[in-house]
Specification:
By secondary structure, this protein is of the alpha+beta class. Helices cover 53% and strands 13% of the residues.
Length: 267
Amino acid sequence: MNEANIEDSEPFELDGLQHYQLKSLLLDSHLAQGNGPGRSDSVDKRRERLRLSGQLPQGWFGRLLLDDLDKQMGGLAERLRPWVAGDEAQKQAVEIDISLAQGQLQGWIDTQKGRQLIIKPGSFNGKDLLLGWIQHLCLSLSEAPGDTLLFDAKLSWRFPALAADEARPRLAALVALWQQGMKRPLPFFPNTAWDWFKAMEKDPDKPDAADKAALSRFNGGWMINGEGEDPYVARCFPELNDAVLTQLQELAREHLTSLHQTLEELK
């Protein structure tokens, strides 16, 4: 064996994708176990398989990471259990067939116990919430409207069912925005816009702090990929200058206000 090909370092942490995949695996395992008498044995067997799989960092670091992620995903599974369908009869694929001025919007949304469940083992960002909001508006305009529940590693939220006459103009506005974006670049970066909007809602008297939050999300940093690092975004918007930020703020107010006002903590 060529010694030059042997790595002289051992991994002590996972990258973002590996982290996400491990959490997804742990969450699926917790949900599959249920609350039966053999649950403890199943947990131990699953953890042992992961240790032997080579997916974890070496030694003590791997055990510490596994303990932490397993606890997080166990807590998420506990929050999910009351809402997850126990059998196929409680699941339904809801058809989406919506007529808008811009055209016909068609597709399917999976529901459980009459609700849409959106689950992320990590943390929701602005893009995740905007996508969930669009799906919720579509569900509200279907033949089987209902709530949309959102769960991440730490928090649970709800979009309550909306009346059709409330959901339709909001969906139409977002479709119109998408059509504009197909014709020219728009400075609407969901994560950046959401971080700015949240900061403004938290303290309207500190716009500079909100602008700083937007710049931080756009530029990125340690363990955070900035939206401005996307090569397609960077091509059109190399920096979040005052002119671009002003346009982003206007679009955020127009399209994220109703999302923010509707989103509520699930208790």
